[in-house]
Amino acid sequence: MILDGRKTADTLNELLKEKVALLKRKPKLEIILIGNDPASLSYVNSKLSQASNLGMDVHINHLDEFVKNEIVSDLITQFNQDHAVDGILLQLPLPKHLDGNQLMDLIDFHKDVDGFHTVNQGLLFQKKDGIRPATPKGIMMLLDHYQIPIEGMHVVVIGRSQIVGLPVAKMFLDRNATVTITHSKTKDLKSITQSADILVAAIGKPKFVTKDMVKTGAVVVDVGINRVDKKLVGDVDFEHVSEIASYITPVPKGVGPMTIAALAHNLYELYIKGESRK
């Protein structure tokens, strides 16, 4: 069965739209986009379109690829101090001359809509209230929408990034799953993935997960977005793995729409928390 991220996102967003309509003002998000990376431009425009449909206020600050670190720092500081701004998003990847870690941690963690700030990452790993990274949060929202059981399941995550692999593993642990994190140095990967009840592929290699790596009846979540011959493909060989998986996300229209939906939910959460602190 297909885990339809597009339809699920639409359903959840309609519910969120009703909540946003009851607020005294529109939640405001400032996006900082640097350079002209086509994937980033497309992604940011999707965020803008969805937020507008939800009644949220989103502004894109498009900066030159060669902008100085100080200019970006000053802009983030300005948004930190602006009480009308609920969320700040620094679109990744950044040009190599910029200090990504410094800029990310300069964002007030109370306005960190992406959940990448060191404080929010720490809150996640201490199982405390905080903003969760959008893609892992979107994955959990998708599984919950389809009522897929998590407690007691063996979850195998391929990939250990701070953006997806590690946080999603912790979120599964917090739901009482047994979690194995694998990566490029893992020995005999196939024997591990074959034992997964839920398999999350976030390694960035097109069609890396093949049918012989997946247990019959497993739930397969494909986080990968790779461009091959002008087509988008995931980290999973969808055509063949879908023959044996009980549930599987497609690429596109799988995890991608759920990530953007989770960002909108994070912005709403930041607004509510911000109002409670006033």
Number of helices: 10
Q: Averaging pLDDT over every residue, what do you get?
A: 96
Radius of gyration: 19 Å
The CATH first-level class of the largest domain comes to Alpha Beta
Low-confidence stretches: none
What is the beta-strand fraction?
A: 15-25%
Corresponding CATH architecture of the largest domain: 3-Layer(aba) Sandwich
Looking at this protein, list some descriptive labels.
278 residues, alpha/beta, Rossmann fold, five-stranded parallel β-sheet, three-stranded parallel β-sheet, 41% helix, globular
Characterization of the model:
By secondary structure, the protein is of the alpha/beta class. The protein has 2 domains: 25-111, Rossmann fold; 134-256, Rossmann fold, CATH 3.40.50. Helix content is 41%, strand content 16%. It is built from 10 helices and 10 strands. A 5-stranded parallel β-sheet has the order 5-4-6-7-10. Strands 2-1-3 form a 3-stranded parallel β-sheet, with helices on both faces. A two-stranded antiparallel ribbon has the order 8-9. β1 (28-34), α2 (38-53) and β2 (57-63) form a beta-alpha-beta unit. α1 runs parallel beside α10 (255-277), α2 crosses α10 (255-277) and α6 (134-145) packs across α7 (165-174). It is globular, with a radius of gyration of 19 Å.
